[in-house]
Design a protein that fits this description.
Blueprint lengths: L1 H18 L1 H37 L4 H4 L3 H5 L1 H10 L9 H10 L1 H10 L1 H18 L17 H16 L9 H18 L1 H4 L3 H9 L11 H18 L12 H8 L4
Length: 263
């Protein structure tokens, strides 16, 4: 998600800077439209494969396995929910989230023309507001299940990457104490987050349960954000000494994948 934000700052942020706000917004709208139709096409392809697989394989109901039975039982409600994104089936959560997050880019760019810090503050404010007001988007019409990835929360990590890609945030200093603090945070999160290990000790399991709201995946708990920042910082410190070698022939395929990751 942060990598997508970084790539978006280069691809779309450049359009805003070079061609103006209107063209930049049109590019964002076009990408949202592409992702929207990709989401619909992907769902229909998987739903068809589930039906055919159930008929051909036998013994396994793939429609039930993918929790698509409500869609086939009530196709009118299913289609209406699918095209309005009020029905986001299980395992189809990521592309709708990207649509909403990308739609926020013009707002962030408009604020950045006044001051980049204002754009970053707006992203943080939206994250905090989501936690306080619980702006959950409905994922299905027969229950109160929300989107698995709440875009108003996950936009924080997207625009963190966007801010670094746009040059709004400088590379953090490589102070030794900061490196070790990040290593410590990453190490501490392993026994807390890894259930096979935490379940061995009652006190550790209890600690994990108490920290569960801060590790929540749907609403991108703040510990997830801090863990990502720490892990990214440690990776940066490890890569920096060999950064000059990353332009070689062996690294070229990896670089190409990174450059083309957004499309």
């Amino acid at each position: 998600m942060a990598a997508s934000g970084f790539a978006s700052a280069i691809a779309f942020g450049g359009s805003f800077r070079r061609h103006g706000f209107a063209i930049g917004t049109l590019r964002i709208a076009h990408r949202c439209w592409q992702i929207y139709w990709s989401h619909l096409g992907l769902f229909l392809a998987v739903a068809a494969a589930a039906v055919l697989g159930t008929r051909l394989a036998g013994g396994i109901d793939y429609v039930e396995e993918l929790h698509l039975q409500h869609f086939f039982a009530e196709p009118r409600a299913g289609v209406a929910g699918l095209v309005t994104l009020t029905y986001v089936p299980n395992y189809f959560d990521i592309l709708p989230m990207y649509i909403v997050v990308l739609a926020l880019v013009p707002i962030v760019m408009a604020l950045a023309t006044l001051r980049p810090a204002l754009a970053l503050a707006a992203s943080v404010a939206l994250y905090v507001a989501q936690w306080q007001l619980e702006w959950d988007l409905p994922a299905e019409w027969w229950s109160d299940r929300p989107w698995f990835f709440d875009p108003f929360a996950w936009q924080l990590i997207f625009f963190t990457g966007f801010a670094f890609g746009a040059g709004w945030l400088p590379e953090p200093p490589g102070r030794r104490w900061l490196v070790w603090l990040c290593v410590l945070l990453v190490a501490v999160m392993v026994p807390i987050s890894w259930q096979p290990l935490s379940s061995r000790w009652h006190w550790l399991d209890q600690l994990g349960q108490q920290l569960a709201p801060f590790r929540d995946k749907t609403h991108f708990g703040v510990l997830r954000y801090l863990h990502f920042l720490a892990l990214a910082f440690v990776a940066l410190r490890l890569v920096n000494p060999v950064r000059d070698r990353l332009g070689g022939r062996l690294a070229a395929p990896i670089i190409l994948v990174g450059q083309q990751g957004l499309p």
